[in-house]
């Protein structure tokens, strides 16, 4: 029975590298994979999954209105699909997560999703929230804070290098994000030390 997988982490943990390696393993054995990434990362009308270490692959684009179950079903008319991979899964809608679950449950195709768990405010992304709720298997991909502890949070810096605490949940420029442990994230965004009298 195929499963829906969610591999999550903070920024720069190597999610895209792992996705591309896993897809390559299938292709090397003569199998067909279907790769998706968010339309927020399109280059013109072309989707591309790129890793910081320099490897990349073309991918189908998904937007909020994309019916992923139907899209994958349409691709099956060409030839068998052995595995579906989704990068930037935090940008999926709750409905799209269920569409991917149906791909695993009803089409018997494994679906491997990769994405961030939380945003720069420490809040769950909608896609990540639904994946954490219904995925068959959850996998944490670890990266480290500058102090050496496991990084689980992300801070978004403004042009002056300060930590942002407000703004749109989505800002695509990756260079403004830094992965931190929870302790240093709380210090960076000004939540520690506490201000005013303590209860």
Could you explain how this protein is built, in words?
The protein has 199 residues and is α/β, with parallel strands linked by helices. The protein has a domain at 4-142: P-loop containing nucleotide triphosphate hydrolases (Rossmann fold). Helices cover 26% and strands 23% of the residues. It is built from 5 helices and 9 strands. It has a 7-stranded mixed beta sheet, with helices on both faces. Strand 5 (83-86), helix 3 (94-106) and strand 6 form a beta-alpha-beta unit. Helix 2 runs parallel beside helix 3 (94-106) and helix 3 runs parallel beside helix 4. The longest helix has 14 residues, at 15-28. It is elongated.
Write the layout of secondary structure elements.
Layout: E1 4-9, H1 15-28, E2 33-38, E3 47-50, E4 56-62, H2 68-76, E5 83-86, H3 94-106, E6 111-116, H4 126-134, E7 137-140, E8 153-156, E9 177-180, H5 182-188
Parallel strand pairs: 1-6, 1-7, 2-4, 2-5, 5-6
Antiparallel strand pairs: 3-4, 8-9
Q: Tell me the overall shape.
A: elongated
Full CATH superfamily name of the domain at 4-142: P-loop containing nucleotide triphosphate hydrolases
Instruction: Enumerate the strands of the largest sheet in spatial order, edge to edge or round the barrel.
Output: 3-4-2-5-6-1-7
What profile does the largest beta sheet have? 7 strands, mixed
CATH class of the domain at 4-142: Alpha Beta
Rounded Rg: 18 Å
Order of H and E elements = EHEEEHEHEHEEEH
**Which structural class fits the helix and strand makeup?**
alpha/beta
Overall mean pLDDT stands at 90
CATH fold title of the domain at 4-142: Rossmann fold
CATH architecture of the domain at 4-142, please?
3-Layer(aba) Sandwich
What is the strand content?
Answer: 15-25%
Write down how many β-strands occur, each being a DSSP E stretch of 2 or more residues. Answer: 9
End-to-end Cα distance: 52 Å
Low-confidence stretches: none
């Amino acid at each position: 029975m195929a499963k829906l997988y969610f591999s999550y982490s903070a920024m720069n943990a190597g999610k895209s590298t792992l996705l591309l390696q896993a897809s390559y393993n299938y292709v090397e054995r003569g199998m067909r994979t279907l790769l998706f990434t968010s339309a927020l990362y399109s280059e013109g009308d072309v989707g591309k999954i790129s890793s910081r270490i320099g490897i990349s692959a073309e991918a189908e684009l998904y937007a909020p209105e994309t019916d992923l179950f139907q899209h994958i079903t349409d691709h099956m008319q060409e030839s068998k699909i052995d595995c579906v991979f989704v990068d930037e899964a935090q940008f999926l809608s709750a409905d799209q997560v269920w569409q991917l679950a149906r791909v695993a449950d009803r089409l018997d195709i494994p679906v491997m999703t990769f994405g961030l768990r939380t945003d720069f405010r420490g809040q769950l992304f909608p896609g990540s929230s639904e994946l954490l709720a219904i995925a068959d298997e959850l996998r944490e991909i670890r990266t480290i804070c500058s102090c050496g502890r496991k990084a689980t949070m992300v801070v978004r810096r403004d042009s002056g290098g300060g930590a942002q605490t407000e703004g749109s949940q989505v800002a695509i420029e990756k260079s403004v994000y830094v992965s931190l442990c929870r302790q240093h994230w709380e210090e960076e965004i000004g939540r520690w030390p506490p201000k005013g009298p303590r209860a």
